[in-house]
Amino acid sequence: MVKIKNLYKNQSGSVIRTIVYSIGHMFIAASCVMYFTGANIYESLTDALVEPIINGFWYYLLDRFWISKNKLI
């Protein structure tokens, strides 16, 4: 139990930043798709949900890599 708590504590900043980034990206993606392509709200929301989720995972991996490299400095 202690190890799980420490793991969460060590990664909580990355998780929170990833969630905030993903939510903001969803709004930006839906707006851009609607504006640039003229897609309807449903098509825009589909793109806005799928693509940021993938980017969210990518950002999390990059953030964890960045943190691991900065600990060495």
Structural notes for this entry:
The chain has 73 residues and is mostly helical. The chain has one domain. It has two helices and no strands. Helix 1 packs across helix 2.
What are its keywords?
single chain, 73 residues, mainly alpha, elongated, 2 helices, 90% helix, 0% strand
Break the fold down into its secondary structure elements and pairings.
Blueprint: H1 2-37, H2 41-70
The gist of it:
The chain has 73 residues and is mainly alpha-helical.
Count of helix runs = 2
The secondary-structure element order is HH
- The count of domains is 1
Q: Return the average pLDDT rounded to an integer.
A: 83
What helical percentage do the residues reach? over 70%
